[in-house]
Amino acid sequence: MKLIVTGGAGFIGSALIRYIIENTNDSVVNIDKLTYAGNLESLIEVVDSDKYLFERVDICDAEELKRIFKQQQPDAIMHLAAESHVDRSIDSSSDFINTNIVGTHHLLEVANAYWMSLPPEKKNNFRFHHISTDEVFGDLGDSPGFFTEKSSYAPSSPYSATKAASDHLVRAWHRTYGLPILITNCSNNYGPYHFPEKLIPLVILNALEGKKLPVYGDGSQIRDWLYVEDHARALYTVITTGKVGETYNIGGHNEKTNLEVLKCICSLLEKFAPNKPENVGHYEDLITFVDDRPGHDVRYAIDAGKIEKELGWTPIESFESGLKKTIEWYITNPQWWKRVLDGSYSRERLGNTNSQHMDQKLKKITEGTKRVL
Ligand code: NAD
Fold first, then answer.
1. How far is CA 83 from CA 32, 62, 79, 162, 351, in A?
2. Using alpha carbons only, what angle is made at residue 92 by residues 341 and 85, rounded to the nearest 5 degrees?
3. Does residue 127 sit within a domain?
4. d(CA 81, ligand 1 centre) in Å
């Protein structure tokens, strides 16, 4: 099977591509604009594979999307490209509207026209898999319940509102035109190659450098955490065995308050990074409470019973085992996050600096290797 993956240079998209290339016979065409969140160095493990092709394209560019569909003749598309950071959406929402809503619309139009033109067998097997978030359901507040596939939509932030809009568009293209779609709504992910502005990598890296560990409000907000490699396996399970038109919730059964997450990271760091910066007695002393984010949801929690019962997927990692792997990865891969934090990766991508310290492999991927599959 040949898959188009959008947003494949992002955190989850790169985990998905690594999973597919390393565990299946399928090939992948990665369409990514390379915004600040896209990082081709997260794909270093697969870049030499004959089954992998990169196209630096904006999903808002319908002509380029048409060209890629025509040239590549994909069997399915997995759509992850998005603006994904809630704080950024509060500061400025236009990129969120453009990519998450307008971009998804372009992709639906191009995929639908392509699908309609296919011969019967290929048409029958084609899938459009839209990857979304549990944040579309809004806030569970004090309720002890869980989000199910039937929960109503009540997004709180500009980010989640644009994701909700894109979910509605995808369902409408199924209902109106018959496009064979699948939707997944997933809880918070964490793991290797996570951009350091997100909570877990931010806390790990700040702690290693002896910087403050910010926690919004009193840290009592609850999130349901899923290890990114469990998510990648779930997505592949859905695209290969999910029922057309259905939605599947994906979650890790790991509800934690943000404060619990910080304390868990600090306690693991005491073990894995005992040589602390001079100003640090205990990592936990670095925890600092900051003003809460506006409209901050209190609790998200996923009921993942449907994907477990119907498709046989369950997460492998517990929060503790996944967090241990994540911390070990950040400790042993400083070259990845240091180049993100000091901006050298972005500058090289834009061609503004020399690339003396890059080895041949990094040079090749940052230039965006194109190969015919
Ligand atoms: P990310 O921000 O790490 O990556 C997004 C990728 O999309 C980047 O590589 C970026 O360059 C690319 N992109 C952005 N705009 C683009 C455009 N106009 N055209 C082409 N590419 C573009 O995001 P992520 O955390 O990997 O999330 C991937 C998807 O999963 C998103 O749709 C997100 O809503 C969803 N999701 C994320 C989480 C989470 O915890 N991170 C949880 C549930 C669902």
1. 12, 18, 12, 9, 23
2. 50
3. yes
4. 5
Write the CA distances from 341 to 199, 335, 344, integer angstroms: 15, 10, 8
The one-character DSSP state at 42 is G
- The tokens of 26 are what? 């399928």
pLDDT in tens, 95-133: 999 999 999 999 999 999 999 999 999 999 999 999 999
- Ligand 1 in reach of 340 Cβ (< 6 A): no
Range of the domain at 352: 2-194+225-254+300-317+343-366
| Structure confidence by residue, pLDDT tens digits, 36-55 | 999 999 999 999 999 999 99
CB 314 within 8 A of CB 252: no
For the chain, how many structural domains are there in total? 1
Ligand 1 geometric centre to CA of 275 (Å): 35
User: Residue 373 falls within a domain, yes or no?
Assistant: no
Query: Is 234 touching ligand 1 by the criterion CB < 6 Å?
Result: no
As a whole number of angstroms, the distance between CA 305 and CA 69 comes to: 35
